Amino acid sequence: MTAVGAPARQSGEMTVGPPLRRLGFLLVRRRRLVLALALAGLIAAGVLAAGAASGLSLARFEAPGSESDRAQAELAGRFGTGSPDMIFLVTARQGTVDDPAVAAAGRELTARVGREDGVAEAASYWTRGKPATMRSTDGRHALIVVRVPGDADHVRARVLPVLVPRITAGDDLLQVRAGGGEEVFRETVPLARQDFVRAELVIFPVAFVLLWLYQRRAMAALVPILAGVFAMVTGLALLGGVLLWTEISTFALNLTLAMGLGLGIDYCLFVIQRFREEIRDGRDRASAIAGAVEHAGRTVLFSGLTVAMSLAVLFALPFDFLRSFAYAGIAVVVGGLVAAVLVLPAVLATIGGTLLPKSTRSEPGDSGFWHGLAVRVMRRPLVFGGLATAVLLLLASPFLGLRFGVADDRILPPEAASRQTQEVIRQSFPAEETDAIQIISKGPAAGDISAYAESLSRLPGIAQVDSAAGSFAGGRRVGDGDPIRFRGTTATEQGTWLSAVPSAAALADDPVRLVAAVRSIEPPFEVLVGGYPAELSDYRASVVDRLPLVLALMLGVTFAVLFLMTRSLIIPLKATLLNVLSLGVMFGAIVWVFQEGNLSGLLGFTPTGTLDPSIPILMLCVAYGLSMDYEVFLLSRIKEEYDRTGDTERAVAVGLQRGAPLITAAGGILALTFAAYAPARVTFVQMLGVGMAVAVLVDATVIRAVLVPSLMRLAGPLNWWPAGAPRTLLHQPDRVTGPAGPG
């Protein structure tokens, strides 16, 4: 075999041919420089990645500019108050919270909390006139509600780690436990990070074994994993640059590492597979590398563009939490492309012989299991395609029962301290004081506050309404309320505000509907409705309202990418329909498992009967991009064979035989990467892992092996319509470079 970069081959082939082919020869010739730069870049990226990981933010579920967002700003700016950020559950070790000694200790503890650094306000059952909403039905528990102003990073990373241990120490009279939304999410972050570490400890060795079984060479199994690590580290380093101008959620770290490893392995496998084929066809190593970069590199670039564009549509949503995943996904795609298209060819030029199988016997594409399966499917396309479609529609059918809701403490495992606190509150208290709905007048309160408060208190699900005119429940005045809390908030130029405390049952059932009911009551003056339930309602409404735009952008950009690759309008349309079917199966699975609670005992989570819309929308974009990833891999082989022979059926059978083994192996490894998150202790992470694993497996097997050949057989010559569309720069017909045939 001719040595790498032999002059006789370089002089003719390195200066002619498509740009990617010339790039392949250049990378072979400059392999030492490329590897040195890659190593230096990886070291620098590692340093930047460490800084990026520590700089990720603890983003909140917020809808900037919404009514609840403006209400919160008004409440803080005009009245110097706001919704509580956290809660302390105080339990009397003996007797009840009304015992004189316990009450005195409770008042002292409330004052102490209010003096802590970072705390703006603290109030309790004992300091607010002993309202029923802040006392458990059995009298053993009472609440201290706390407002800690600042962004999520400040509250969760600086204030609470100091405040919670100091206050929960308790004494002989009182037991104190921490809860509330901020404490729940403060506990969520380290658990999610631990879930990642455990998953990666499983993924790396198992991925190596699977790659070795597929590649039959240890080095051929190790190199794709190293490419995945390169993509992960590079992706995190790029996020470090993004952090200079925007915030990125810490949860994006999980997606960065899972997708980085999976895509790095996928792209690397595709290039190595093509390199092996070129060697089997009689090329010397330099020409084989150039051919791999020309053909597999082109496919990998289209695939990366498809995945990146699918995730980029998340920028259409005005939420930092979801935009974080767009930045993370695009960053790891860039890392994977650099690893596969620029670094890997230099690796192949250096140690390519150790990646080759022991036998270099040429494997024809017109025989084998996948070729035979494609032929059988295309003989009876309606039977096979119809049966596969029916099965997938059945699996997708639970999606019809999808119910969007809001996330709460039950995303954590039962042993989490904040969840245990919230469970006591949910079971023992008649209302949710920390989740009060705040109603703020836009200007002067020129109207009857009492009548308005009475009307609000009659709403089903509202336990009590507190206002400057007193406290109301069931349409009746039940007390003077808290005069200190509402001091000066009467019918003056300053205006007023009211606090509608929801019952625990109403919040558990449908907090969004409760907020809508509050907003439907005609106020005597202009108001803004805020508070935690309203924030969740506005966030959910904003996400769901923009869902059609996200879908339209995602379908449009991926359709355009596939058209550029295939020069066909029919193939992108078919791919879109198949990927939508694949997404339906994924959503059917997460509804059946996480909404309806099937397998909850096995996976160890608590179903709530609804799904928070954020994670499904993220999964929609990620799964669609990865589905198109495999579509691009398969179509590139089919298109290449069709350009060579002009025979659609032969092109499908040969393309499936050459592409399906790789797609199945890559899909299995990527599915494993996500499935490793199924045993996670945070439900969000579990949902992402299970849903993505299902989507990848269905797409890499049933969709590609059965529905693609059946639909292409039914479409026949229409597959390539319009025939006269111009070729793209990156898609060139094969050229003959000598006796070996097409390169």
TrEMBL record:
Gene3D superfamilies documented for this protein: Multidrug efflux transporter AcrB transmembrane domain
Keywords: Cell membrane, Membrane, Transmembrane, Transmembrane helix
Record InterPro entries: MMPL_dom (IPR004869), Mycobact_MmpL (IPR050545), SSD (IPR000731)
Family: Belongs to the resistance-nodulation-cell division (RND) (TC 2.A.6) family. MmpL subfamily.
SSD domain span: 218-350
PROSITE patterns: SSD
Keyword match Kinase: no
GO cellular component: plasma membrane
Membrane topology: Multi-pass membrane protein
A Pfam family the protein falls into: MMPL
Protein's recorded name: RND superfamily putative drug exporter
Organism of derivation: Nonomuraea fuscirosea
Residues that span the membrane, as ranges: 196-214, 221-245, 251-272, 300-319, 325-351, 382-402, 547-565, 577-595, 615-638, 659-678, 684-707
Localization per Swiss-Prot or TrEMBL: Cell membrane
